[in-house]
Specification:
It contains ten helices and six strands; from the N terminus they run ααβαβαβαααβαβαβα. The chain has helices spanning 4-20, 28-41, 58-67, 85-90, 102-111, 115-122, 124-127, 138-149, 168-175, 192-211; strands at residues 52-54, 72-74, 95-96, 131-134, 157-160, 182-185.
Length: 212
């Protein structure tokens, strides 16, 4: 729950973003999400060179999944602390991250794969109709794309914003080739704050719609 002082700081930050952003291609709910990302990262580039990319059904599917209390599967534990806990509790959302699971570590070592991609593969059945959130590991996003192409899983939405120099941009390009709603961005930027901001923004849209 936000304090009055905290809310006033957030409101002022959003006003500054609106004043400084300049021309951009986003409208409606997509702009609310992008603005939340900028607020969380202090990086206007997410609306510019490394701009966010939305599948036409991404926002709709994300809202439906969250309202229904579907699973959120994330690649690293760092995202969890950035998600609004009240929203998770109120909507009975189960957030799953297995990267530190001993069984995942053992399997990854045996197969010489990353822990992130192994964790995704081992949770295939729990991804169905849920939201997959990748903010750090391109290998996790590439694994999810492979699983979708194999029809091993069918999530409602894939949020793919891994950060890095190896395969980050390439994995995002590949994500845009699948026949399934996604939210991603151009280039190497991304990360846990960006990924969590998207989920928090979707929850905020739900709150606003229910109170209007």
């Amino acid at each position: 729950m936000q304090t009055r002082r905290g809310q006033s700081i957030e409101d002022e930050s959003m006003e500054i973003i609106e004043q400084e952003i300049g021309p951009h291609p986003y409208k409606g709910h997509e702009w609310q999400i992008v603005r939340r990302i900028i607020h969380s990262t202090a990086d206007f580039d997410f609306a510019r060179e490394n701009g966010m990319i939305f599948h036409k059904d991404a926002v709709k599917n994300g809202l439906e999944a969250l309202q229904s209390g579907k699973n959120i599967i994330i690649d690293v534990n760092g995202i969890i602390g950035l998600l609004n806990k009240k929203n998770l509790d109120d909507f009975k959302t189960n957030v799953i991250c297995d990267i530190a699971n001993p069984a995942v570590v053992k399997e990854a070592m045996k197969l010489d794969r990353t822990k992130a991609q192994t964790a995704m593969r081992m949770r295939a059945s729990e991804m169905n109709d849920g939201i997959i959130v990748i903010g750090n590991a391109p290998t996790a996003l590439l694994e999810v794309i492979s699983m979708i192409k194999e029809k091993a899983t069918r999530p409602k939405l894939v949020i793919g914003v891994p950060v890095g120099f190896v395969s980050a941009a390439e994995s995002k390009d590949l994500l845009q080739t699948i026949d399934l709603p996604y939210i991603t961005n151009k280039g190497r930027k991304g990360g846990s704050p960006c990924a969590a901001a998207i989920i928090n923004a979707l929850f905020k849209i739900i709150r606003e719609k229910s109170s209007s």
